[in-house]
Q: What sequence folds into this?
């Protein structure tokens, strides 16, 4: 399957021509179970992808292969021009450029919001405390939570925690952001504040892959929506076509399910 | 019991506390190492740590003290009783603390390691800044519980002639022919040390159960 899009939306030809992430024939096995099968995906710089599909279809596995939280077994993944293999130096370099936001936030509970944000820039990018805190304050302000900087995660609401998690990832000044169902663990009234943060990030030109079933979000920001089932990419397209005229029966069934639940 | 006899008991108590402290502190240092080896991704070091723990948990402490005290001199290492029991208790404590902390490290939610990895943190900062502080908190009740066991366990050092509280008690009991009084005092001294620790451990446990709900 080919994935390079002919629609050139970006004004800058150089950045548009450089793919940020390239996955070629990627396969991933958990023991005898094939979780990803022949995945081909190219994400251009600045592109926003929404990844959807039924539970267990391999969405998390796919994005977790990109920052090597899972090792893939076959094929090739290139991130920012670097081929992701077993070399720890390359893995580290790629992780410094790829931010990830988890469904369960995964904030460090024994550290304040500010400490959560400054730890990795200090440890991995060699910033001193002052510089790291300056970046952290700027980004906490950006996700509108600067006033909570000295609190502990447990003192915040779910939506606030997820915004902190986004700020923490942004403090690494990544080139790509991966989101794994960032609003699925939230009470409904907190979903919007997190989606708004993601939308503003998208508007600023961040390259993003978002696993989410928030179809309103997909319509608003996605350049492409990708549908997965049983470890394969079944269908992809611009949200307008994807939602109005899905080509595959499985996609139609899935969209029907999603709409019934929303 | 005369004042002098009581003083002798207190000097025994001093050695009980000294042995407990040395066993616990050096045991903690090596125990941390054992816990890190046991949870390391390297299968060989993890196995070695596993066997180390199995040996010291699977044999009586008294046998371990005998091996160090009587066994090492056979290899040409002549040891003072104090050094021998200190080594014995360090080995013993390192295995138990290693196992307690292994469990605690593994009880830290996986998401913490994943978040640290996603943030490009390497092994040491991940352990030092993220996993161990949380593991220590989780392990605190069990660690305090083990310390209480260790303090009471130091009485076994009497069997290789190390004069700690219980052996001091035996001497005084033989001298005064008043074992009931003397051993009551000895028991009371152990109790005064161990009971507050036990209470503290129970309180930590309750606090932890309350916050992890
Ligand atoms: N660590 C693992 N070990 C074994 N099987 C796994 C593991 N992680 C995921 N799987 C399996 O791989 C499949 C895809 O999982 P996942 O990527 O989490 O799906 P999704 O995110 O789309 O719900 C599922 O069937 C899941 O059970
Ligand atoms: Mg998932």
A:
């Amino acid at each position: 399957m080919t994935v390079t899009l002919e629609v050139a939306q970006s004004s800058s030809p150089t950045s548009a021509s450089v793919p940020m992430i390239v996955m070629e024939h990627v396969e991933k096995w958990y023991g005898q179970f094939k979780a990803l099968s022949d995945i081909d995906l190219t994400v251009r710089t600045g592109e926003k992808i929404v990844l959807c599909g039924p539970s267990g279809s391999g969405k998390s596995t796919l994005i977790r292969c990109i920052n090597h939280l899972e090792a893939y077994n076959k094929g090739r993944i290139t991130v920012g021009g670097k081929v992701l293999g077993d070399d720890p130096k390359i893995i580290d370099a790629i992780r410094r450029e790829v931010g990830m936001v988890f469904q369960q936030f995964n904030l460090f509970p024994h550290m304040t919001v500010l400490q959560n944000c400054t730890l990795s820039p200090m440890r991995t990018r060699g910033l001193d405390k002052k510089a790291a805190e300056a970046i952290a304050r700027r980004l906490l302000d950006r996700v509108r939570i600067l006033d909570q900087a000295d609190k502990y995660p447990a003192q915040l609401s779910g939506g606030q925690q997820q915004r902190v998690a986004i700020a923490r990832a942004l403090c690494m000044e990544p080139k790509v952001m991966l989101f794994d169902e960032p609003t699925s663990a939230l009470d409904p009234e907190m979903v919007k504040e997190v989606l708004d943060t993601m939308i503003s990030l998208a508007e600023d030109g961040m390259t993003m892959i978002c696993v989410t079933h928030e179809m309103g979000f997909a319509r608003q920001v996605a350049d492409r929506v990708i549908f997965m089932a049983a470890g394969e990419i079944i269908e992809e397209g611009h949200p307008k076509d994807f939602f109005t005229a899905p080509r595959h029966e499985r996609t139609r069934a899935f969209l029907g399910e999603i709409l019934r639940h929303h | 019991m005369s004042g002098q006899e009581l003083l002798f008991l207190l000097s025994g108590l001093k050695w009980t506390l000294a042995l407990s402290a040395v066993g616990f502190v050096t045991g903690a240092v090596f125990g941390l190492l054992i816990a890190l080896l046991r949870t390391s991704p390297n299968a060989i070091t993890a196995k070695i740590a596993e066997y180390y723990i199995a040996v010291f948990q699977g044999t009586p402490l008294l046998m371990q003290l005998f091996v160090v005290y009587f066994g090492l001199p056979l290899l040409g290492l002549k040891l003072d009783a104090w050094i021998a029991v200190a080594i014995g208790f360090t080995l013993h404590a390192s295995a138990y603390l290693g196992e307690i902390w292994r469990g605690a490290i593994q009880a830290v939610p996986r998401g913490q390691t994943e978040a640290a990895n996603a943030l490009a943190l390497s092994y040491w900062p991940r352990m030092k800044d993220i996993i161990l502080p949380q593991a220590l908190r989780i392990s605190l009740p069990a660690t305090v519980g083990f310390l209480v066991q260790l303090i009471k366990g130091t009485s076994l050092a009497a069997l290789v002639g190390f004069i700690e509280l219980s052996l001091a008690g035996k001497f005084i009991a033989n001298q005064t022919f008043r074992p009931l009084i003397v051993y009551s005092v000895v028991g009371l001294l152990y109790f005064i040390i161990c009971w507050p620790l036990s209470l503290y451990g129970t309180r930590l446990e309750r606090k932890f159960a309350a916050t992890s709900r």
